Amino acid sequence: MSLASFILRRACGLSLLGFMVIALAAPAQEPLQPLAGADTQQNAGQQPLQAAPAPATLHGVVRDAASGEPLARALVSVEGDAATAALTDGDGKFEIPNLPVGPVIVSIRKPGYIDAASSEASEVMDTISPAPHNVMLTADMPDVEFSLMPTGAIQGQIDLSNGDSAEGISLNLLRRVLVNGRAGWASAGSAKTRSDGAFRFGELAPGVYELYSEPSLDSEDMNLPVEAGRGSATHEWGFATVFYPDARDPSGASRITVAPGATVQANLTLTREAFQTVTATAVLPPAFAGGVSDYAVQVMDISGRVLPYPARYDSNAKLIEASLPDGSYRLSISTTLQLSISLEGQRQSFSLDFAQRRGGAPMLQGAVDLQVAGQPITNLRVALTEAPPIQVQLNVLRSGSGEQVGSSVQFVVTATQAPQSPGQLPDESMVTELASGRWPGPLVGQPIAPGAYWVHMQPAQGGYCESSFTAGGANLAREPLLVGQAGVQAPLELTVRDDCATLTLSLPQTLEAMRPGEEKYYSVYAIADFDSTVDPREVTLRPSTGGSITLNGLTPGNYHVYTLEGNTSFEYRNPAVLAALPSQAVTLSPGATSDLVVQVP
Question: What is the pLDDT of residue 225?
Answer without folding.
Answer: 42
